[in-house]
């Protein structure tokens, strides 16, 4: 069975932080994610990020990696949390320096706080003549959120997602935060993690992007994900490369499930294909009964 087995401390290895970008509409979440994806950041790995698989990993010059959930906004964050998924290690909250602290900024902050996820503020659009980062930091201070410039502990960095100014330094701060969190996972066990997105592809069948959080996923593994199951036939990374194995904090798209699980569903590799099928079927049955019940009421 896939009951959580405690890892021994000596089996835990450092893993990359998983980052979500949140903030008010139009403050630059998509632009930041696009910039980081396009620049492939900094290390200049061969092959750009060509596939939109809902998450991607980048490497910095020092070889450290960061995994980004490529779904801007806190809807995805809350949808995942509603399904019990705790995926995000660090939240980047983007705030436009030529605007105010807006309602969705406050929402993003309270979501991160409720989830106990540390925040880093990206004060964006500093290329604009009307940008006033100090005003934003003052506004944060009034909310009891003291950034480093204000003598506090919360990291922030002034950036332009358009020109790229400050983005590298922002990512270095993400790594610093990650270091303090001491993120670890055991790569030497059956993989488990969370579904990021899934869809039916005309030619390839069901394609699911999953984020491996523990263990190592391999081709041929039997996967149980929500109400779906199947044997992994192929795996592909965000650069379109075929991959045979995926360890902790790696986003990977997989082929072989018999359906499309929902974002936020947990996935587990099972020792036994039949057991995976039975559990998936039982869950599907429960879901059908549940929906009949809600329709009646
Ligand atoms: P989102 O709704 O938070 O994802 O915001 P977008 O990334 O879509 O950005 C909203 C608008 O602001 C777009 O027109 C972007 O081109 C623009 N924008 C985003 N970041 C910057 C920036 O750093 N500087 C400038 N000048 N414009 C930006």
From TrEMBL:
It comes from the Bacteria. GTP binds at residues 23-30, 70-74, 124-127. Residues 14-184 form the Tr-type G domain. It is found in: Cytoplasm. One of the essential components for the initiation of protein synthesis. Protects formylmethionyl-tRNA from spontaneous hydrolysis and promotes its binding to the 30S ribosomal subunits. Also involved in the hydrolysis of GTP during the formation of the 70S ribosomal complex. Belongs to the TRAFAC class translation factor GTPase superfamily. Classic translation factor GTPase family. IF-2 subfamily. This is Translation initiation factor IF-2.
